[in-house]
Every structure is written in structure tokens, then in C-alpha cells.
Amino acid sequence: MAGLVPNIGLAFDAAYSTQQLIYPEMKIVEFSSYEEAVANWEGAASRLIQAGRDQDLETIAKMFTIAAMVDAPDKTFSQDGADITSQVTGTIESLLTALAYGTVGRFDIEQRYGGNVSGNEGTDYALRLDDAERTLIDTIGGDGAANRFVTQLDNGPRTAANPTAQAAALERGGDPNGAITVPMITMHTANDPLVIVENQAFFADRYRSAVANQTAQGDLIQLYTVPPATYSPETGAPYGAGHCNFTPQSRIAVIELMEQWIQDGLYPGQNAIVAAMGSDSGYSPLFTPGPWPDLAAVVTE
User: Which one, out of 94, 163, 164, 294, has a CA that is 20 to 30 A from the CA of 241?
Assistant: First the structure.
């Protein structure tokens, strides 16, 4: 919902932060081969997993810093984030997903569009830490850890996108402008490690801008599913955490709501949505995603 360039940009931020804070040898752009991209992902994954096993507090604090840069969730399909052990494990899982996209996925994207489509010139990483995140990082890594880490990121080397490749990615890879012309219903898990839920906030900002400019002619309804407070690693989250982890009923509900809206002219009000989604889908009418991590990327027309 945010488009290719902003999403691969966040994956770049995850790779850059990992390189600067944990794995200096890591290559993060312009991979020469698929095998090189895989090798860099494997090297990073090994560092993160080993730090978790060793209970290396300094590196764990750095991992929470990296996660904060890209809003990587600490809840995943297998981790409920109910205690610090689960939060660390879930954060590692989310970062491994982001880094896979930022290496193996990036190689494919660079091949498609002829070069690096995103960079971090002008990025202010310190702005991405809120007070709660700073407190958690300092609690794990020691007083001043959060400031040390973001200062290192802000003072690190910057990478520029290839303008031609970026333009091609925006043109052919998708750059949603929010100017919808037909009814639209979206559904997102609250905790998605691959396509973060803040994609919906990004799109909603552009939709509101399009409405203000009178270029949007269709209505937008955004639905969210939230996982239970606790669940076991063995069974996993029944809904709400993991990539597109929806119940069959919620998937069918979206189709039925859209069909009734288009064919019968019945706008999906809250009562209709609750009835269609059912009580076991995790649907939450009160959930609201936070803003896109890199606010500078949310360019409205």
C-alpha cells in the first residue's frame, strides 16, 4: 500500500543499521549475484541468532534499535511478545524477514530496474526512536545506549539511489497515490514482519490528500486483525500476527462485504463488518496503525 520504493527503502534501513551496528562486513546494495545476496543475509542472520542465544545484551539492544528504525514488530506468528524472551525472539524473526527482503529481494529488484532504487541520503535516524523505545534500549544496553546507537547511524556513510533505477521502480513497480476511483476494502494483520501495518497509514495519508484535491472518487475502508495477548510457539497465532495470517472467515467476509457494497449498494457499516468478520477473526475496530517510520517518504500530491 506504500509502494515498492518506500518498502525497499525500509529494508535498506534495516540492512544499513545491521551493517553499522552489528555486521560491518555486510554488503547492502548492488549485489553482483543472487549467491552474494544470500551469503550476506546468512552472515547477518548468524550474528543476530547467536546474539540471542548468548543473551548478548549490547547486541540485543542494537537489534531493538534496528527494529525501531523500521517498525519491525516483536510479535510474529510464533512469538506473542508476552515476555522479554518472546520479544527478543520475535524481534530477531522480524529482522531476519526484513533483511531477507533487503538482500535477496533487493538483488531481484536491482536486476529488474537497473540499479539501486533507494538510499538514505538525508535520513535522520534519531527521529525514528520514541521515548518508550529509547527507554527499552537503555534498559537493555545501559544508560545512553539509544543515543550512542542512533548517533552511529546518523554519522555513518550515506548511499544515494540511482535516479534512473528509482524512476523505473516508481513507474513500473507501483507507487500508489491514493486517488482511488472505486470502492476499496483493505485488510492487514496488526503485526506483519514483511509488509508492516504502517503501509495502511501511508496509503491513508495519500488517500486523504487525493480527497482534498478531489481526485479520489471511491471510498476506502481499512480493516485490521489483532492477535490474542498470548499464544504458544507450537500452535502459532490464529490470526493477527504473521504475514497475511487471516482466518478463512475474515477472507470471505471481505469478499461478501465488497460484493454487497458494489452489487447491492450496501455500504459496509460497523455492524455489518462485525457480523461478517465474526468473533474469532481478531477483527479490531479500534486498532489504528502508527505513522510510516520515514515520514519524509510520505510525499503527497
Answer: 294
